[in-house]
Write a structure and sequence with these properties.
With 292 residues, this protein is mainly beta. It has a single domain, classed as 7 Propeller (Methylamine Dehydrogenase, Chain H). Helix content is 0%, strand content 57%. The strands form 8 sheets. The protein has a 4-stranded antiparallel β-sheet with strand order 1-2-3-4, with no helix packed on it. A 4-stranded antiparallel β-sheet has the order 5-6-7-8, with no helix packed on it. Strand 22 and strand 23 form a beta hairpin.
């Protein structure tokens, strides 16, 4: 299972899987109420919105589904790489892919849609090793995560950077990336690196900060206004796959099998503290974490 999305209003959970299906689960009975078939390869991401279910896949397509019948409404096939992340707000659909692009569609709540309205270019290719089934594959990773609100869009990539975009003007406003800086006596280093050193797997933001999680085991906090890296949160022993943010609490889910709970103790000093860990009871692999 690679993707989850919860609809509290409908009391449904959607899950996306390697087995090419999307399943809907009733949270009262904990039973699967519908299975959707149509993708030609594993499903990487899923979102519920009203009567729509949206999914992105290794087969390089996005499918829009009728939640009540499970039937596909439309297929968007403009990407030339795996569709890794999607977000829909009731009007606009944005998708990120291994083809290094973010694509924008206008989609109505009934599934009617326009052709692709814009392609955001800027993220570059980065080498990433990925194990699919029993094979180790060397891939050229690109857009692996995105979040938008109004016209503010943040994306993360295998190129180790975070980009900030204005959706309306189509402009890239800022690139958040690692920089080499001269060290000080307290570090006992001639040089040190600021920024992520591996693929960026999840991004979230609020009015003040951008949060990014990476396979370098760290969560970074960036000043939304100027783009400076202002804090590094270290609690995981393996790559971090997911972030969830609510008010002054941040969750990070890692392949080390834990969810770290971070609390903003003091806003003035940007003081985030580790409040605790939740551990999985399975094989130690955890790829998603969210508030209920």
């Amino acid at each position: 299972m690679l993707g989850l999305h919860l609809d509290r209003t409908a009391n449904l959970l959607a899950s996306a899987s390697f087995d090419t299906t999307i399943k809907l689960w009733d949270l009262d009975t904990m039973e699967c109420v519908r299975t959707m078939y149509g993708h030609g390869d594993g499903v990487l991401c899923v979102q519920l919105f009203g009567r729509l279910v949206l999914s992105g896949s290794y087969d390089m397509t996005i499918i829009l589904w009728d939640r009540d019948t499970g039937a596909p409404i439309a297929t968007l096939a403009d990407h030339t790489g795996w569709v890794v992340c999607i977000q829909y707000d009731g009007k606009r659909l944005l998708s990120g892919s291994w083809d290094t692009t973010i694509r924008l569609w206008n989609v109505e709540p009934n599934g009617q849609h326009s052709p692709c309205q814009h392609v955001f270019w800027g993220h570059s290719e980065g080498i990433y090793f990925f194990k699919k089934k029993h094979f180790l594959m060397v891939l050229y990773a690109a857009v692996t995560t995105l979040q938008f609100k109004d016209n503010y869009l943040v994306s993360g990539s295998g190129d180790k950077t975070i980009r900030v975009w204005d959706i309306e003007s189509r402009a890239c406003l800022m690139v958040l990336q690692g920089t080499i800086e001269r060290g000080g006596a307290e570090r006992n280093l001639m040089f040190f690196c600021v920024g992520h050193q591996d693929l960026v797997r999840s991004v979230r933001f609020n009015d003040e900060f951008i949060f990014s999680a990476s396979f370098d085991h760290n969560v970074r906090v960036w000043d939304r206004a100027c783009g400076d890296s202002v804090k590094t949160l270290c609690a995981h022993r393996r790559g971090i796959w997911s972030l969830s943010l609510r008010d002054n609490t941040l969750l990070s889910g890692s392949r080390d099998g834990t969810v770290a709970i971070w609390i903003l103790r003091d806003r003035a000093s940007n003081d985030w503290v580790l409040a605790g860990h939740l551990s999985s009871q399975d094989d130690g692999k955890l790829t998603s974490a969210s508030f209920f």
